[in-house]
Design a protein that fits this description.
Length: 98
């Protein structure tokens, strides 16, 4: 699992790449504040090596709570910038800072 950031100088956005290795998974999505927790908007594409990957443009100078949705189960990013308690979820969410 990983989150990679590519800052764009000419635009107020950061290209954030989310990767999740899951060879046996059928569907993986990244859901969070930046896509209204909508799995259809955050669907990741499965690569030949079994990793799911997607790139999203996120506004700079902000932080976003997120999780991976792997075949219906929520999973945190172990390499997240931080974690934040979310009372709605009753659990911690991963946080990415851009």
């Amino acid at each position: 699992m990983s989150v990679k950031k590519q800052f764009i100088k000419a635009k107020p956005v950061c290209k954030v790449t989310f990767s999740f290795p899951a060879k046996t998974a059928q569907q993986v999505a990244v859901v969070g504040d930046f896509n209204n927790w909508d799995p259809s908007v955050g669907a990741l594409s499965k690569l030949k090596n079994g990793t799911f990957k997607g790139v999203f443009d996120l506004d700079k100078n902000a932080d976003y709570e997120f999780k991976y949705l792997v075949d219906g189960n929520y999973v945190n990013e172990p390499e997240a910038d931080s974690y934040r308690w979310n009372a709605f979820a009753g659990n911690e969410n991963s946080v990415v800072v851009v």
